Structures are given as structure tokens and as C-alpha cells.
Sequence to fold (526 residues):
Amino acid sequence: MIYMDRRLFQILDHINEGIIIIDEKLNIIYWNTQMEKLTNIKQEKAINRNLYERLPSLDRNYFRNAIDSVVKKDYKYFFSSSIHKGLITDSRKVNVRVNPFKIDNSRYVLIECIDVTSQALRIEQLKKFSNELYLLNKELKEKEKEIEKLAYYDQLTGLANRTLFYNMAEKFLEEAKRNNTKLGLMFIDIDQFKRINDKYGHKVGDQVVVEVANLLEKSTRKHDIVSRYGGDEFLILLPNIKHYNNYKIIASRIAIANRRVIVSDDIQIDISLSIGVSFYPRDGETIDDLIFKADKAMYCAKNRGGNECIHYITK
Amino acid sequence: MHEKDLTYDILKEIFNIGVGKAANMLSEIVGKKIILDIPNITILESKEDDEEIYKHFSALPQGALMVSSMKFGEKITGEANLLFPANKMRIFINLCIGQPEYMNEEDLNFTDMDFDIIREVGNIILNSIIGEIGNTLDISLKYTLPEVRLFNKSKFEIGLKDKEEFCILLLYISFIIDDVKIEGAVIINLTIDSLNELMKMTKDIEDDLYG
Fold:
């Protein structure tokens, strides 16, 4: 039996952590009052009893191995309450430290049980709070993206809207001026759109607008900007056109694209487009100039029966 | 095979036995398959030029490091540091406690509870490594429980280089838990005498093997 001044044991009773001392045969030789509070097991019921018999929750393979290494190899162990639930008690979160010590050639093991329930609770609360902030922040960022989308993209077709068109147009125009390159602008209007709307209703009209938007996107180059200017009008920016006539390549791609819109089994609409084209620097110095000239050319096409693409010609 | 290579291979084997035991214990604790492996080891001494030492340190994980440091003493004295990249620790901690993570996985804000988990894991791994050195040399050692800190890698390097004379056993360690692989390192500062003793014992094992 360990010889120790009883007064030392009494001091351990005032320590704010649970203390168990066992001998190398795993018999409990000391159990302080804090241990009584943690486990509801009285000192007299614990002393001289086997550790695992008194605390069956410790009877786990790894814990037995750990105690063995503490006794034989002087290892120290730390078991955290986050990983080990219910190691000492189910109702509290307890960190456990296991240390060896030696008195008069006898080996003992000191098991410290530190109650961290209140800290764990506070950390959980902080984590919850920080998680709420994280989710809120994520939500706000998504909303911000949505607002940006609403501000720059047409809701029906997903194409660039007027605002984005003007931003990009100014950028492309500046670039063309700086690099002495050509910038093309196509003004596109759906032929007989009013008749489609009147005959089939606005819902079908919208469907036609969406199909045209898809068709224009598919027919243009990667860096061209297709935008919905309003109603059934579209604008396309064609940066870095090498020769004025090269717009014809894109115009022919639009011409040969499938333009049959299937509304239902009974209703199929063949759409045609009137397209006018203008160019920087030949037809104007500003975007408004280019839009005006392309619009004129588009009307010219329309007056000639539609379904045509013509470029602006100075009279 | 080069004579030195064989000594290194024996040392590597010794440490792999140790971490194998640690992996078993950790697997049992967290209820998941954990594999620990030491694929490579290096010995660095202060007499080597800075460039050589730098070369080895640059192979260590980059950025912020989570370091568990444990001192050991008695017949041989030194300090063992287990280093893992801090940005991998969030996912690692969550795997250990079986909690799905809602936060940014690269979050570097750790709570005391998180540090406790790393302390426990670091303790088991370092015990096993230093324990194997003790076993090999047939000596008993006294250990402290590890302290866990976050370091900036460059600061950690400077801290090591400031020591006038040092001998470092550098073990590269890979930790696999649930298909997540984390590459880390164990840096053991030993006195030159302790290292020489360890090398001598390893040489004896080698002689026993090959007569």
C-alpha cells in the first residue's frame, strides 16, 4: 500500500479535477471528492476496487493498452472529451490525463479527470454562431450574384441586357480605336413578330424570342456579344472583324440555322430575321452612330420583304 | 546496397513498427481505418551547410503548420515535433470525431477542443516513435504530454536554425484516414551523443542480420 501523508490526500480533495490513483495491479488506492461528484461513486465504494470494475466505461481495449504502456514504459496519455464520449461519465465532457509515477520502487498511475463541459458548451455555441454567420454570408454572396445577374442579363433569354451591351460595346470600341481594328454591329429584328404574338399569344411570342436568342448564340463566334435590346430586337457586337465582308460568314450561319419553332404538335412557326450591319470606323465613331446605322439597314431589309441581312450603305 | 542506405532502412523499419502500433490504437479510438507510414527518413546535423538543410526543409508541408511538441528525457534527451499542414487539420479533426463539416474546410480558426484532439493524436504518434527509439536502445525514457501550436513554416525553421548545435532526425510521415491522405513530418531534435548511440545500436542490428 502506498505510504502517503493523509494530509496530502486531503489537499487533493480540494482540487478542482477528478483524481484517481491506481497501483500497478490496477486497484484504486485514491479517489478524490471531485471524482465522487463526477461519477456519483463514493470514495469508500471505490477504494481497493479494480479500476475497470468500478468504472466499466474505461474497459476498452485501447485504454487497457494505454494503461499498460504507462505502467511498463512510462508513457503519458491524454484522452480528449471530443473523441471519447462517456469515458468517465455520460453526463459530463471530461478530458483524461494518465501519468505514471514511482514511490519506493512501486509504480502508480495518476488519472486526472478534467471536466470541460462548460468550455465545450461555449465552444459549441460559438461554433453554431460562426456557422450561422458563414451560412448568412454565403446566402448574401449568392444574392449578390443574383442581383448582378438581374442588373446585367435579360431574364427571359439569359442574354446580355442593354446595360451590359453598352458596357461591352464601349470597351470593344475603345479597343478597336486603339488597335486600329474593325468593330461590327448587327441589329436583328424578328419578322412578323407582332403577327405571331397576336395569333398565338405572348407566351408563344416569348418562346420564339428564346429560340432566336439560342440560334444567335450558336451562330456567333466565342467572343461576340449577343444581347437583347428589347422586345424582338437583338444586337450583336462583332469585335476584330478583319474585312467588312466577313460579317457574311456569321449572317449565313444565322440563315442556315434551324429556324422552325415547334410550339406544340399542331403549331410550328417558321421564323425569319431582318438584319442590318454597320461598322466602326466606316459607318460611325460612336456606338449610338453604329446602332442608328445598323437599325436603318435592318429597316431596309425589312422593306425588301425581310429574311435578309444587309449592311449600311452611305447615300 | 550502400551501407548507409541499409542503416537508414533499418531505422525506417523500426519507426514503421512504432507508427503501425499507433495506427492500430488510433483506428480503434476513432472507429475508422487509419494507416500511418514513414516512407523516408533523413538525418541533419548542424555541421552540414545551410543549403543542404534548406533543401530538406523545403520538402516539408508549406504554409501554416500545426505542431505537436513533446519533450523526452533521462538517458537520451530531446524534443519531438509532429508537423501537419494546418489547412488539412479541419477535415482531419472532423473525421476523427465523425462530424460532418459545415464550415470552410481550410478554416484556420481552431478551438481548444480542436487542439485537444490534435494533442491526443500527436501524443499517440510521438509516443510510438520515441518509444521505439527507447526500445531499440533498451532504455526507459520520461515524456511530457505534447503542446500543440500553430506555426508559420518560416518561423518554425528559424527557431530550429537558431540552435547552435543540433542533430535532427527528420521522418516524413503520411497519415491516411478514410481515403484522405495528409503528408506531414516528425522532427526529432537529439543530442549528438544520443544520435550516435542510436546509429550504433542500428549498426549492431545490421551486423546481427548480416553477420
The mean pLDDT of chain A is 91. Residues 40 and 89 of chain A are 10 Å apart (CA to CA). The interface with chain B takes residues 60-62, 65-66, 69, 73-84, 95, 97, 116, 119-120, 123, 126-127, 130-131, 134-135 of chain A (CB under 8 Å).
